[in-house]
Amino acid sequence: MNNADNVAKKGDSSKQIREHLLDVAEGLFCEKGFAGTSVRDITSRARCNVAAVNYHFGGKEKLYYEVFYRHMHTLRDIRIASIKRVMSQGEGEVTLEQLLHAFAMAFIELLLDKSKGRRFMKLMVREMLDPYLPKKMFVEEVGRPTLSALGEAMAKTCPGLGQKETVMSILSVIGQLIHTIYLSEIFNAEEDLGLQMPNLAEMVEHIVAFSAGGILAVAEEGNRKNDGE
């Protein structure tokens, strides 16, 4: 084996250790939160030296950030890709409902992933209750790019909708989706509630139709006001 092969092998090994530390730390942060998890907890479960956390991340706080970063980037990229994909179809005749449906499915499917998605939801709940991340981190990494992409697409599928109304409409749709996921988890965990919950596909259809109707009505009102000026 030559020197180049040795360097490559060491690089691969270092990357594997880094990813393993991220996986282990994520599980512990879900279980115990940031404050309840020590560096020794992480390295003990990962079966590596305590110095590995400082070497790869510069400390527990930056490791915590990296755990969130890799989820945030995936969330952002998948959602924006779904918007671009649907807008590239239909030769410019994409409807608002088609746009919202593509976005809603991308939003829900990732968070319902039985491993990564649900674990990220637990992390987010812990972070909301006991925050340690920089306040603007989620907004900068996920919120602003997603709002921008979806807002531009909505402007094409729904002319007449003002910027303020666009932002409120997007936040309304996202709020409905998050609440649906949360309630779905609760009702599925309780078998004796005597309630028949619609499945998620049906809920997405309802949210899309309900939201599109309201958004189009607001846009039509905006168009009438503009015509009257």
What's the short version?
The protein has 229 residues and is an all-alpha fold. Helices cover 79% and strands 0% of the residues.
Order of helices and strands: HHHHHHHHH
- Rg on CA atoms, Å: 22 Å
Indicate the structural class. Answer: mainly alpha
Mean pLDDT: 84
- What would you call the shape? elongated
Instruction: Give me the count of strands.
Output: 0
The total count of helices amounts to 9
Largest sheet: none
Helix percent band: over 70%
- Estimate what percentage of residues fall within beta strands: under 5%
Protein model, in words:
This protein is mostly helical. 79% of the residues lie in helices and 0% in strands. The chain has nine helices and no strands. The longest helix is centred in the N-terminal third of the chain and has 30 residues, at 3-32. The radius of gyration is 22 Å and the shape is elongated. Residues 1-11 have low confidence and may be disordered.
Features of this protein?
mainly alpha
Layout: helices, strands, pairs:
Elements: H1 3-32, H2 39-46, H3 51-57, H4 60-87, H5 96-111, H6 116-129, H7 137-157, H8 163-189, H9 200-228
Helix pairs in contact: 1-2, 1-3, 1-4, 1-6, 3-4, 4-5, 4-7, 5-8, 5-9, 7-8, 8-9
